[in-house]
Amino acid sequence: MADTKSSKSDGLIRCDACPVLCRIRDGKTGACDRYGNFDGKLVRMDPVVVAQKILDEKGELVPFAISARDWDGSLMRNTPTFLTGIGSTTTYPDYKPAPFIISSDEAGVDMVTVVSEGVFSYCGVKVKIDTDAYIGPEPAAIRVNGEQVGHVTTAEYGSQMLAIGGVRHLTGGSKKEGNITCNTMMRLCNKEAVEMSVDGGAQIVVEAGKAPIINGIQEERMRVGCGSATVGIFAPQWHNYVDEVIVVDDHITAVLSEHQAGKFLDMPPAGIRVRGRRSTPGRYFQVADHGAGWGGTNITDPLDIIEKIEPDVAWPGLRLLMVSTTGQDAAYFELDETLTPVEKDMSDEVKIVVNRIGENCEPALCSVMFMGGAGGSLRAGVTVNPVRLTRSVKETITSVTCGGAPVFIWPGGGITLMVDVNEMPDNSFGYVPTPALVAPIEFTLPAERYEEMGGYVDRIRALEDVMDNENVRSIPWNRDHPWPLRTDNVNGRKQGS
Amino acid sequence: MFIPAQMALMPDGKRLHLHHGPIDLIIEAFGTSNEVRKSYQQAMEYFPSILPGLVSEIKELRKPYNRDWKPKGPVSHRMQEACRPYEGIFVTPMATVAGAVADQTLEILMSNRILEKIYVNNGGDIAFHLKRGHVLTTGIVSDNDFPNINAKSELSYDMPVRGIATSGWKGRSQSMGIADSVTVMAANAAAADIAATIIANAVITDHPAVRQEPATSQDIDSDLGDKLVTVGVGKLDKRSIEKALESGQAAAEKLQLTGHITAAVLVLQNDIRVVGFAPDGMLAHVA
């Protein structure tokens, strides 16, 4: 890469890559669209990216998250370097060798890394949204700009799950549907915020690694557990300070004195009946509709879920705590002479336990996993005998990474992988007009094994040759990731462990 | 130190790629291998001088057209010439830079060479030459965000078209209008380029979904100064789309009747207007 610098003033930088000497505003690109101003730094928009082990003064590997932002992208010499697929371009759909086939010497063993940007016609994005909030019924359509890009899939504990993309939306529908689906997947994978609407459900904003925004409200925490689990965890801590606890939850609302946990503590029945369908003692389904209120229900006044208070069981002065599964909503009542609940300040002892629910809730996050099948021509870019690559991956002789990040390889046929986009460098993904998503992918294996599988041995270049002669940008290696060039990757080590 | 011009054959071994700063040319010449090679050689000798030549006059080129200004360089001269029919409306020679570079490069490629067909594609603005009986096939892309080949069209020797250019607010250069794309066919690329810019500027309507900002807020050195340029267009209702397209159509018809362009195709949110003669296939892509 040529020695390009920028001079800075008023948020503008002056690009000196060419004689036009564009002055570029922050976040914009110059006249060529190839150089841009990112946070006051001049960056080349499409160089091939290498991840390098960068050491601090003490000789320690610098952390990825911090250094990725501060690192100016200039290339280090004599430090362990891994060439990623980012910016390497693709050869799709031509059956020709991958753009980069790199040899490097790792502890005396010749390793080969085959690097390309895979074009994934078959791919999707799985989104896990940690929230109790109601998102929509399963399997409701998820839309962006009116086009269906995916659907709500089976919920997991404390999380709502979305399935986005897939070949049917990409190429099975209208051109517009395909383009919007592709664009949605790309933005999600590039860690951008994407607004989506669920048919019969919520308007949601999803951004990898950030809290979800549901119907305009930013979620803060995922629930500690369902209502029943919350009662189970905290029952002994409430005992003696309250006579009844109702944990409001869209899934299972729990009533402490009726619940197994309350019985175990010898709590007397309190005679407060809640709405909904009783599952087992003290556990109720469907106490209210889904919504943006308490615990993912549509309840804003918790007393609304109380069906009746039995006069021959309840007593004046009964102390009742109502709380949601995140502790974000809570109210304390005492029954008066007519057994009517009157809201009062809660005692410090009760407050501590309510706060503890919150403390035990993890922050609400959106997790975005890219999932794709590395099929035909992508494998053909590695070897003339593609099935041998599949076998080699399955035997964990060949290690697969996406932008240097570890991937999970599904069992069974083909190379179907999943990768957490937050583990990948920013802006790793692109697209082709097919439409299909483009993702960096690297296959690393010992040189002799590469030769055996029918690899393009005559196309192998030394890593140094690429670093000397190509437009290369350096990012710090993520020290939490297994080093793909480690020779003990060979045999016996599972992918992504 | 500046990054020097990059010049290389594409991996297909047939097309020539010339790149220097914001200039990015894809060239393909058809003829005997000897003639094609010599043609490419001429272009590679000449090409590195184009950008410095433009930069030396950039101050004047960014100013509104002034008939008394005498450009020095051949590309600047083409830009100034292309502006001539538009005296009286706001236009700067920079509006035609991509087309003018394509035209000038084409002239160098063809000088003393015998070629059957040749094109110079400068980021979508295309200058070409055809020998009798030959045809140029081009793909049309209506939405830059999703660059699909929406249609293919064939331009033949007997048509009075040797330049094609496209303008729109989403592209690399700025537009005062809201057209997704305006594609113009004219006698050369510079003429097509400036006409596309002017017609695209005319595709405009008042609508809250149209977001505009001063050109300099996007690009501090913009030749459009503080004029408002489009930075976003939301979904428009049918009436607004028609109104904007009619406004652009009127501008295009005037240019066609006065002989400055051969044809124009205006696209805005899946609606389309055609002015003049447009080849088959160009219209087929609109939903």
> Which structural class do you get from the secondary structure elements of chain B?
alpha+beta
Oligomer status: heterodimer
Tell me about the largest β-sheet of chain B.
9 strands, antiparallel
Tell me the radius of gyration of chain B: 19 Å
Number of strands of chain A: 35
What does this entry look like structurally?
- Chain A is α+β, with helices and mostly antiparallel strands and 497 residues long.
- Chain A is 17% helix and 34% strand.
- In chain A, the strands form 7 sheets. Chain A has an 11-stranded antiparallel beta sheet with strand order 17-16-15-14-11-12-13-10-27-31-30. In chain A, strands 8, 9, 28, 29, 32, 33 and 34 form a 7-stranded mixed beta sheet that branches.
- In chain A, helix 4 runs antiparallel to helix 6.
- The longest helix of chain A is centred in the middle third of the chain and has 15 residues, at 175-189.
- The model of chain A is unreliable at 1-5 and 490-497 (pLDDT under 50).
- Chain B has 287 residues and is α+β, with helices and mostly antiparallel strands.
- Helix content of chain B is 30%, strand content 26%.
- Chain B has helices spanning 33-46, 50-56, 58-61, 74-83, 97-110, 189-202, 215-218, 238-257; strands at residues 6-9, 16-20, 23-30, 117-122, 125-130, 135-140, 151-156, 163-167, 181-186, 210-214, 228-233, 263-268, 271-276.
- In chain B, the strands form 3 sheets. Chain B has a 9-stranded antiparallel beta sheet.
- The longest helix of chain B is centred in the C-terminal third of the chain and has 20 residues, at 238-257.
- Chain B is globular, with a radius of gyration of 19 Å.
- Chains A and B meet through strand 3 and helix 3 of A and helix 2 of B.
